[in-house]
Design a protein that fits this description.
- The chain is 39% helix and 0% strand.
- The chain has 3 helices and no strands.
- The longest helix is centred in the middle third of the chain and has 18 residues.
Length: 93
């Protein structure tokens, strides 16, 4: 299943990047983790860059104090179909 189809259609408009002059901060509360939503943002941005080809991409910085890279790599692969290792080898991450 392509990564873009793993984002529910009703959520698709909300995982678009804000304007260039904006910052995006995702936080979580007890019982409501931001991991799922964060993976959807990564999936939307990184998969759209790989599919569009000629479009200028965006830089993505993922900072996590609670989880290691292995966790995010596995979650991206499992829940969003995003191969972060392949993107890393291509110089896209």
């Amino acid at each position: 299943m392509p990564p873009s189809t793993r984002i529910p259609p009703l959520l698709q408009p909300y995982v678009q990047l804000p304007h260039d002059e904006s910052l995006l901060l995702l936080t979580s509360t007890l019982g409501a983790s931001a991991n799922w939503l964060l993976i959807r943002f990564l999936c939307n941005e990184l998969s759209s860059n790989t599919q569009d080809g000629g479009e200028e991409g965006h830089n993505v910085i993922l900072v996590s104090w609670m989880r290691e890279y292995e966790f995010w790599k596995q979650e991206a692969r499992k829940s969003a179909g995003l191969d972060m290792e392949r993107l890393k080898k291509e110089g896209r991450r």
